[in-house]
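Ticket #4471: structure export looks truncated?
Reporter: QA, pipeline team
Priority: medium

Steps to reproduce: submit the single chain below to the structure queue and open the exported record.
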Amino acid sequence: MASPISKVGIVAKSHLRAAAPHLTDVAAWLEARGIEPIFETATASLAALTATGTRRIFDKPSLVTEVDLIVVLGGDGTLLAMADHIGAAGADVPILGVNFGRLGFLTEVTLAELYPALESAINGTARAEERLMLKSTTFRKGEPYAEHATLNDVVVTKAARSRMIELSVYVGAEFVARVKADGLIIATPTGSTAYNLAAGGPIVQPTMDALVLTPIAPHMLTNRPIVIPSGSPVRVQPMMDERDEVYVTFDGQDGYNLEAGDDVRICCGPRRLKLLHSSTRSYFEVLREKLKWNER
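Actual output as written to the record:
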């Protein structure tokens, strides 16, 4: 039976010269199997490629709607950027992350495992997980101002020179608390091992249906992280005056200043990301290696 994958998008970390020689090799490997490689724009420049009759090039937002699989060569940040474009487009394209540095939580396939993992992805035997994504809408003056799709987290935080900020937090229609802190992280299970972990939040197994709300350096030590069902929408409203500078970021990829009266509404996204994994390594093996749990 013919493979359902006929077009594969290739994306590398910006300026990752170590990936350059592998890009044309991956393309040739795919073409030998009758699969069209399609390059992301900056990745094509890294490989010194130009668009030809047989090699097509697209920017990130367009790429996710053109291919059946995306291969990311780089680190977790590169994969996050592509995941957010997939979520924003409402696409259903799976993603395979290949790490060029230390083992990543998301890009867990090593360079040595690249072709076996790609073979598994092509023939449909790769281990896949569906990861919850967030849909965030910022309202300004009662109207939608901006929307974002995120895989890891939404973070409302003070600016670099700002004092501690105060945030009104709601879950569903219910008021939860006014949090005085440096900020608040709303994380998915996937994002629980990112900023959330650094801020003292819990690790949540990525297949769980949950969200984590973690205050950043709270003024009251009784303001602790809380885990809520993924179906519970969250609303965060900064309580600001003219001295406050409050910023919101989305997966560390995009962000902007909030104004008085703004509120950020976060809910579970309509689609989940299909993340392909190495067949040789479990989630807990990744945790042990990344967090050095085996070391004494």
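Status: closed, not a bug. The export was complete when the record was re-opened. Leaving a note from the reviewer for reference: The two ends are 50 Å apart (CA to CA).
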